[in-house]
């Protein structure tokens, strides 16, 4: 067996931590992926303990997946991109964390997504997953649009789409608006049959819970359900407006990433759709690129 | 000094517990108010411990206000009306509470509000405070419209108005919509100056926090601020629709109660405004009326 210093030569961990899950990769000196790990939510806005546990867990899993001992964590530098740390107070909290890595290079989920999508070059990204936001990085200057969180922001995100649908279904159960097939789809998804049961099922639930309803809303919209169509189109119009704001900064390229991307793309304005390029690498590789730039 | 059994003869405690505060009254056999007490939030949806502490505290304060020892709590029956207990799971939880009263008669905040507003007779109420809902009680049959909670329901409530305003202000700070005087009013209220600071100030905040912003939104609407006007009118239109649904059940009278009532009434549809009668008694007296009916 090699000694640790040889084993870990050139290795980096890249982490992308969001509101739903945390992804980690272990890469070698050529950025080839040796192992991957996935764990739970890692947005410190929703809890510091949960976030730090998820980050450590995903990294340990990536090491084990690559055939390494998880004990090597302390010998490998990590790039960590996290949702929520665009808020200075959360950035400071996470940056002061007694992390398990050799070094930790902390960045926003937006920056690592952009660096990954455009292989470390200037560009713009829109992220539509559990949350939503836009980010542009040109000539060393970054700008964020959105990224405000749930329930006060994140329009066009999975959580927003799910919450809007839930509100509309509750109005229909109160006979204040006409029910549509979305009503049955949501009740069936939640395994409830009336407003009281539905409120019990959704009360106090976090963004990730609502984001799980987004798929059925898009499905209903594809079947021309008028309520679902209105929700999806309003969300997509917001994302299109974000894209146009980002494009005023003249990024060479713009990509749409996140779990909702394939569903929402057809609803974006045609000029925005034409500008979109597929991302080169996923955000967790952007975290590696960031860490190598910093290290 | 009289012995306890004489002192408490005919006394009742009436409690109205909502998302923002808990009010208690101590009344004599003629329902004359001997003392009042106010404490913190008492909606068990937002925490059982907090709710039960607020209920006990408000009742103790009412006894002390009346010149009685708080130890007499165990000798006096109480009517307790609470937000949240329209959900069966919360009703059961609260009803199984080892309460400090002689007896506890538990009802929804809606029923006690309606009994109070119409002095124990049939009628309907709409409540617009931190939350919103409608309730009608005719010929022994009750129906609830709304009362779904925050952030998925409670349209037209103070929390809803505040949240809508916050969303619009964030969009204006991202330069996705034009700022209006509402933007400055909200930033000033929160003592922040940009989107990042604003998100730090509002992230994870409960309904009561947003309800505190409702007043400035109505103020801006009265000055013809277009964004504030659109928010207020959408909320008021919902309350008008709730009223019309309740009126289909032919209640003899309908009242609008809750802290937002005076602000939102002028925005309701004229036919709804004409039907509104002032409430006879406040909800905490409705809790006493309920307890006497049950005792």
Description:
The structure is a homodimer of 295-residue chains. By secondary structure, chain A is of the alpha/beta class. Chain A folds into two domains: 4-119 and 280-294, Nucleotidyltransferase, domain 5, CATH 3.30.420; 122-278, Nucleotidyltransferase, domain 5, CATH 3.30.420.40. Chain A is built from 13 helices and nine strands. Chain A has helices spanning 4-7, 48-65, 88-95, 109-117, 158-173, 181-190, 195-202, 207-211, 214-222, 226-247, 261-264, 270-275, 283-294, and strands spanning 12-17, 22-27, 33-39, 78-82, 104-108, 123-128, 132-138, 141-146, 254-257. In chain A, the strands form two sheets. A five-stranded mixed beta sheet of chain A has the order 3-2-1-4-5, sandwiched between helices. Chain A has a four-stranded mixed beta sheet with strand order 8-7-6-9, sandwiched between helices. Chain A starts with a helix and ends with a helix. The model of chain A has no long low-confidence stretch (mean pLDDT 94).
CATH architecture of the largest domain in chain A: 2-Layer Sandwich
Distance between the termini of chain A: 27 Å
For the sheet with most strands of chain A, the description reads:
5 strands, mixed
Report the strand count of chain A. 9
Q: Which structural class matches the secondary elements of chain A?
A: alpha/beta
Q: CATH superfamily name of the largest domain in chain A?
A: ATPase, nucleotide binding domain
Largest interface: A-B, 32 and 32 residues
Strand content of chain A: 15-25%
Helix count, DSSP H or I runs of 4 or more residues of chain A: 13
Helix content class of chain A: 40-55%
Oligomer: homodimer
Query: CATH class of the largest domain in chain A, anyone?
Result: Alpha Beta
- What is the CATH fold-level name of the largest domain in chain A? Nucleotidyltransferase, domain 5
Radius of gyration based on Cα positions of chain A: 20 Å
């Amino acid at each position: 067996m090699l000694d640790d210093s040889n084993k870990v030569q050139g290795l980096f961990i890249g982490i992308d931590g969001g509101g739903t899950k945390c992804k980690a990769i272990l890469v070698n000196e050529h950025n080839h992926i040796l192992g991957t790990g996935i764990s739970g939510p890692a947005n410190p806005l929703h809890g510091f303990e949960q976030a730090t546990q998820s980050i450590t867990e995903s990294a340990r899993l990536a090491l084990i997946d690559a055939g390494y001992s998880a004990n090597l964590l302390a010998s490998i530098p990590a790039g960590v991109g996290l949702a929520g740390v665009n808020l200075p107070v959360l950035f400071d909290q996470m940056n002061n964390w007694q992390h398990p890595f050799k070094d930790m290079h902390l960045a926003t989920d937006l920056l690592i997504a952009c660096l990954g999508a455009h292989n470390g070059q200037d560009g713009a990204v829109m992220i539509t997953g559990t949350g939503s936001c836009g980010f542009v990085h040109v000539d060393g200057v970054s700008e964020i649009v959105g990224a405000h969180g749930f329930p006060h922001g994140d329009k066009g995100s999975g959580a927003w789409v799910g919450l809007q649908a839930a509100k509309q279904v509750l109005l229909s159960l109160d006979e204040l608006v006409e029910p549509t097939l979305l009503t049955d789809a949501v009740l069936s998804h939640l395994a409830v049959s009336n407003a009281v049961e539905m409120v019990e099922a959704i009360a106090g639930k976090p963004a990730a819970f609502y984001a799980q309803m987004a798929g059925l809303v898009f499905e209903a919209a594809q079947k021309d359900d008028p309520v679902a169509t209105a929700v999806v189109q309003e969300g997509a119009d917001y994302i299109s407006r974000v894209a146009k704001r980002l494009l005023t900064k003249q990024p060479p390229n713009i990509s749409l990433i996140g779990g909702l991307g394939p569903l929402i793309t057809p609803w974006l304005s045609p000029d925005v759709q034409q500008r979109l390029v597929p991302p080169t690498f996923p955000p967790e590789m952007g975290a590696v690129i960031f860490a190598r730039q910093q290290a």
